[in-house]
Amino acid sequence: MYLSRFLSIHALWVTVSSVMQPYPLVWGHYDLCKTQIYTEEGKVWDYMACQPESTDMTKYLKVKLDPPDITCGDPPETFCAMGNPYMCNNECDASTPELAHPPELMFDFEGRHPSTFWQSATWKEYPKPLQVNITLSWSKTIELTDNIVITFESGRPDQMILEKSLDYGRTWQPYQYYATDCLDAFHMDPKSVKDLSQHTVLEIICTEEYSTGYTTNSKIIHFEIKDRFAFFAGPRLRNMASLYGQLDTTKKLRDFFTVTDLRIRLLRPAVGEIFVDELHLARYFYAISDIKVRGRCKCNLHATVCVYDNSKLTCECEHNTTGPDCGKCKKNYQGRPWSPGSYLPIPKGTANTCIPSISSIGNCECFGHSNRCSYIDLLNTVICVSCKHNTRGQHCELCRLGYFRNASAQLDDENVCIECYCNPLGSIHDRCNGSGFCECKTGTTGPKCDECLPGNSWHYGCQPNVCDNELLHCQNGGTCHNNVRCLCPAAYTGILCEKLRCEEAGSCGSDSGQGAPPQGSPALLLLTTLLGTASPLVF
Ligand SMILES: *[C@@H]1O[C@H](CO)[C@@H](O)[C@H](O)[C@H]1NC(C)=O
Ligand SMILES: *[C@@H]1O[C@H](CO)[C@@H](O)[C@H](O)[C@H]1NC(C)=O
Ligand SMILES: *[C@@H]1O[C@H](CO)[C@@H](O)[C@H](O)[C@H]1NC(C)=O
Ligand SMILES: *[C@@H]1O[C@H](CO)[C@@H](O)[C@H](O)[C@H]1NC(C)=O
């Protein structure tokens, strides 16, 4: 019941958040531990709080009685009928199934008539106290989710203590005292759970509510779990989110409802009168027909399934946790301290998934280039943040673009990455390969692309040669300037001075005669060229 309330709260939140935030839409599958969502990265699992369903816990317990031989019938004896001290010929005989009252009968199916019940021996040894301990053990932490209800077949005891253990029976603490007279029996003022509040909910009280009488109508004793929940969740437990919020933040409150064992200490049987009738001690005994304990395996909100195998309860842990209660991180998932999941959905709560250990992803996490790691939930991985020394990568194990690996430096050396220094004019981009070689444009060469291949000359980068003075590409007396253009005599034009200027203008032949003769003889031009005159010839 609590479970389904919680589910609906959670589902509602997810829907609301997908409207209010630019958050991935919930898609398809939904269960207690994870939801499939769409993100920019595609379909991924979103992990959240989870716990096994609340169930009848009496199916999984072991019961032990102290003293061990306290059950009636061995040897057989007679006892008085309930409510009629003068009808004392009822028989208890352990060797006759119909007349036996073994402890198992407290946990069998009830609802039949007459009901089956466990019964103790009678108070033959009065005034020596008749005391019985009934210990219920689960060998597993469980969380109570509903009232513990004990139904007596005899009168309800005059004095009783309900105790609990959180450490598999090593130590015990009282859970609640029950007496017809609390002050007399336990030196405590009588109280009822209704006298408590949010602030005093953990108080251990003595109650007189369940001890009066020896009548057939008052057979039941409660340990009130729901009334205590109601201090947080409201009278009809409508606001479970509020209870869960409290449980998330208050370990003491969580522990209050957690047990590994319960012990019912029967201290004095119902007498119903002021004095014990010593002539009819067969009137006095304990008999219990039913014990109800509802709860769930405690899996620290890291499992939805609890299996019963080899008479043992074990959580099927998620979120990379392990242990019977999912109480620790799996090997190689100890990247941060274990903590329980939370009841509340993100952003208030989180699954607290265990993350991979640093040691399982590299012996030196960021090689000294970053002192900060960050866990990426979606990828379930740890990355180094803000890698320094021109490094990059999940563990700062790579060089930034524009840098290359210094072969003579270790990975954790500050000088591990060397700038490429690619010539910006000669290279295609500023990146280089592992040995520092840049990618060159056409006609360009050298590790840094700052040299020209033959037939090319540097002019804002390598340009193919247009002319060259040795090969005399320039015609009609033109000279080659920096391999990129011919400087032509006045009458000539064109890239190689191959055209008459007048031709270009369309004015040849009319006035200044047939094409101006070359001024200066070819021999002179050749000489000038050979002498390597750098200054342009001006005509
Ligand atoms: C019952 O258990 C308590 C401790 O929880 C112990 O002190 C007491 O002696 C036990 N009584 C019997 C009858 O075993
Ligand atoms: C737990 O670890 C396994 C194995 O590395 C991984 O596949 C899985 O996604 C992890 N689970 C969670 C909830 O992070
Ligand atoms: C490469 O690393 C060595 C060792 O740290 C260092 O001495 C050297 O200067 C580095 N080379 C460059 C180009 O930074
Ligand atoms: C880098 O490129 C140069 C020239 O192409 C080549 O000789 C060298 O082997 C390359 N180095 C690596 C690590 O690829």
From TrEMBL:
It comes from the Eukaryota. Disulfide bonds join 420-432, 440-449, 488-497. GO terms for biological process: animal organ morphogenesis; axonogenesis; modulation of chemical synaptic transmission; regulation of neuron migration; regulation of neuron projection arborization; regulation of neuron projection development; synaptic membrane adhesion; tissue development. Residues 1-28 form the signal peptide. SMART domains: EGF, EGF_Lam, LamNT. Residues 420-469 form the Laminin EGF-like domain. One of its GO terms (cellular component) is side of membrane. Residues 46-296 form the Laminin N-terminal domain. The keyword Lipoprotein applies. It is a lipid-anchor; GPI-anchor. The keyword Cytoplasm does not apply. GO terms for molecular function: cell-cell adhesion mediator activity. InterPro entries: EGF (IPR000742), Laminin/Netrin_ECM (IPR050440), Laminin_N (IPR008211), LE_dom (IPR002049), LMN_ATRN_NET-like_EGF (IPR056863). Residues 463-498 form the EGF-like domain. Pfam families: EGF_laminin, EGF_LMN_ATRN, Laminin_N. It is found in: Cell membrane. Keywords: Cell membrane, Developmental protein, Differentiation, Disulfide bond, EGF-like domain, Glycoprotein, GPI-anchor, Laminin EGF-like domain, Lipoprotein, Membrane, Neurogenesis, Repeat, Signal. PANTHER family: NETRIN-G1, NETRIN/LAMININ-RELATED. Involved in controlling patterning and neuronal circuit formation at the laminar, cellular, subcellular and synaptic levels. Promotes neurite outgrowth of both axons and dendrites. This is Netrin-G1. The lineage of its organism: Eukaryota, Metazoa, Chordata, Craniata, Vertebrata.
